[in-house]
Design goal:
Elements: H1 32-40, H2 42-51, H3 57-70, H4 77-82, H5 85-93, H6 102-120, H7 126-129, H8 134-142, H9 149-163, H10 170-174, H11 192-211
Helix pairs in contact: 1-2, 1-3, 2-3, 2-6, 5-6, 8-9
Length: 217
């Protein structure tokens, strides 16, 4: 997954030893093989983002690696989209299950694979390589099954921050998740220390939300 020349905003955005370039590997799961897959296969990254809900982030993003192994060593959107739904549910539910909710998430992964086939001819990376600007990139992501507004903005931020995929206005499209130096989401995780900071931020947000709830007494 490399940066198309048309979306690098300036020479300063080109980091030869950093995100979006040969040799760069994400740090999301702590598993070198799983992180390498996320860094090299766009569909794996997309599936990881789909699964990143109601389970620990590391587990969600390792699931594409485990899914690939269970599918015989290939993550092919055409093959996933064409599977009998119950067969994919069985693969998701085999111990250890790939998600807390294997049936619903197997369905979601099948839906997003079908969308990649129907809209992008099976080329997952076309979700971002065809985007003329950040607004279109956000719209492309939001049109995918399982991507609400918040998840779509986080994914745009992940592409921009970690892969240097930065069409004009990408950071605006990402909203607060595009802010430099923030630790709000998976887009900001590049080390164990960053993971700790993101977890602390999420815990703080949950605590503040609980504090705003009306007192039942």
């Amino acid at each position: 997954m490399h940066v198309p020349p048309s979306v690098a905003t300036s020479p300063s955005d080109r980091r030869p030893s950093g995100p979006g370039y040969p040799g760069f590997v994400l740090w999301l799961t702590g598993d070198p093989d799983a992180d390498a897959l996320l860094s090299s296969e766009p569909l794996a990254l997309l599936i990881g983002m789909v699964l990143d809900q109601q389970i620990p982030m590391e587990r969600a993003f390792k699931a594409p690696f485990d899914l690939k192994e269970r599918l015989g060593g290939s993550l092919d959107p055409a093959a996933i989209a064409a599977m009998a739904p119950d067969d994919l549910v069985e693969i998701f539910g085999a111990k250890p299950a790939l998600h807390r909710f294997p049936r619903s998430m197997a369905g979601r992964v099948q839906e997003v694979s079908a969308a990649v086939m129907d809209t992008y001819g099976g080329d997952t990376s076309a979700i971002w390589t065809t985007a003329a600007d950040g607004k279109q990139l956000l719209a492309n992501v939001k049109a995918l099954p399982g991507f609400g507004d918040q998840k779509a903005r986080i994914f745009v931020a992940l592409l921009g921050k970690q892969f240097a995929i930065r069409p004009a206005g990408w950071d605006t499209a990402a909203g607060v998740y595009g802010e430099t130096g923030s630790y709000r989401s998976v887009a900001d995780i590049d080390s164990p220390e960053a993971l700790t900071k993101v977890r602390q931020f999420k815990q703080q947000m949950k605590a503040e939300a609980r504090a705003k709830l009306p007192n039942p007494g």
